[in-house]
Amino acid sequence: MITFVTHFVKLNDEEMINVNKVISHFYNGDVYHHKNPMRLIRIMFTSVKMYHPECKLVILTDEDTCFDVDEDVTIVRSHRATDQLNFERMKARHAFLETLSNDNHLIFLDWDILIQMNLEHLFDRGDDLVLTYRRKHSIPINDGFFGVHRNSINKFHHFLTDIFEYYDNLPHEDYRKWWGFQMILNELFSGYLPTISNPASPFCFNFNGLQVALLRTDKYNASPKLLPLKSSFFPAVAVMHFKGVRKSMITDYWNRLQEVYAESKKTNLQT
Fold this sequence. Notes:
By secondary structure, this protein is α/β, with parallel strands linked by helices. Helix content is about 30%, strand content about 20%. The strands form two sheets. Strands 3-2-1-4-7-6-9-8 form an eight-stranded mixed sheet. A two-stranded antiparallel ribbon has the order 5-10. It contains seven helices and ten strands. Helix 2 (about 35-50) packs parallel to helix 7 and helix 3 (about 85-95) runs antiparallel to helix 4. The chain has helices at about 15-25, 35-50, 85-95, 155-165, 180-190, 215-220, 250-270; strands spanning about 1-5, 55-60, 75, 105-110, 115, 130-135, 140-150, 205, 210-215, 240.
C-alpha cells in the first residue's frame, strides 16, 4: 500500500509577495498562487483514490492553515518559522518521516498533480528512492513527484538529514524559498545521470548506499503544453503535473479524466 503525501501552507499577503518575487526569477508570472488551492488538493487526492482505493492521504502543513478535505485525509502540522517554503517543506518531511514505521511505501507529490494509473509497480524493484528525469533540461531532476520504498524510510530520513547542510551552500538564498531541494538533488546526482539520448527506464545508480531509480518524466511527471486541453487527454501518462500557470488547466483536464475513468469502469463491468 502507498501513503501519498503533499505539502501546502497558506501564506499571508506579505509572504505571498516575497515568495512570488523569488519565483519571478525562474518563471514569468505568479505561479504559487491559485484562487482555490483547496479544490486542487481535493481533486488531486480524488484522482489518487480512483486508482489506489486503499491508500493513505497526508497533508503536511503549518500550525495555522485550515483545510476543507475529506475525513480520510490526515493533516500533519509542524511549526513554520519563516516564509522559506522549500526549506520549511524539507523540515516538515523530515519530521514526518520520524513518525513512520515501514508499513507503507511513500509518494511525495506537489498539489498540482493528477494521477492516472496505479503506481504500486514503482516499488517492485526495491529501489530506495524513485525520481523522475528529463534529459534535455537545465534541471534534469524534478522533485514534484518521487517515491520512497517502505523498507527505505529510515535510510531516506538519514539522507534528508545530510541534505540540510547543503541549504547553507546554495548559490542564492532565494533557493531556500523555491527549488532548493531540487537544486541539491541535481548537484548531488550530477555525476550519475545518464548521458545517452535514450537511457533505460528506470535508469538506476547507487549514491552512497542509496539505490536510486530515475523514471521518464514524460510518463511519470509530465507537464502539458500551454494549450487548451478541453479535447486533449494523455492516457499513456501515469502522472500529470500542472506546474506553474498550468494550474488553470487542471479543472478541464480533470473533467476529461473522470469521463475516461467512468467509461473504462463501465466497459469492465460489461466484459
